[in-house]
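Reopening this one. Same input as before:
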Amino acid sequence: MPVELNGNNNTSTLGSTPEAAPVKAIPTPISQTMPANDIHTNGNIQGLSALEMSDPNSISVTISDPDAPLIVLFGPPACGKTMTLIRLTRYLQKEGYTIAPIRTFRPASDKNYADICDNFDIMINNDNAASSNDRISFMLVKVLKNGRTLCQILEAPGEFYFNPADPTASYPNYVNEIISRDNRKIWTIMVEPDWLNQTDRKNYVSKITLLKKKMRPKDRVVFVFNKIDKTSFVRHVGSINIPEAIKEIQNMYPNIFIPFLNQNPITKLWKKFNCNFVPFQTGSYTKAINGITYQEGPQEYCVSLWNTLMKKIYG
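Same output, byte for byte:
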């Protein structure tokens, strides 16, 4: 369940999601697979041209909707951004939302992106959806309910947010373009247990501190503790020892919440930090003959994350 961090026991404002929310039946996954392509070679990021790979400042993106809030999945490579998008998309589709790729986000020359847009629902709902990590390099989708756009969700390469091998690298132009957009942004910052080493985590915190300085006052921040199922903080599905989970992240990533200290002399008495903390699990991954089979994580975590994001969109 989500919490707003405060100065006492970090459990002052809990989400309204019941701990034992019923889990809906999961439909049979679509068996059709994505068409093969050979865009991804030599470990390059799929869809990027040779120029973009050699010079990230030449990467081009377009956010054509200036009004819809932008949920930015932020984190280093392999932290779970793509699978968070996939799990959240599956949940929202079952709840009656429409998730539609925004085709104008990348240039027409990015055939990989056009292919993903064409086959988005097939790829997301396939039982081999975990292979999407090798396909989705950039993805901007809009979330609609009854035909009305609620928000946009952005997933982009983690190495351009924070690369442990080059921790002080500046953001490329397209990231600065996203940061400078006037849309309200909900920065969904990924953390996880036992991630790399102390130096890498310290450098990640430094990058988050720099990001905070670039945020607008109307922007919001949600820390997502991914892979919560790999920790000892789970009492049972949907019931997490939140105070201990927060302490774990504070110990692993010292000062990670400090940039978000509440400076308001009135509200800081009961709300120490201007950010939220949500435990999450994307799902389970099983090796199979044809790759990795993906099974959805419990719905309760999606309910909690989405409720928190919606409050940040409108609050």
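So the earlier flakiness isn't reproducible anymore. For the record, The chain has a mean pLDDT of 87.
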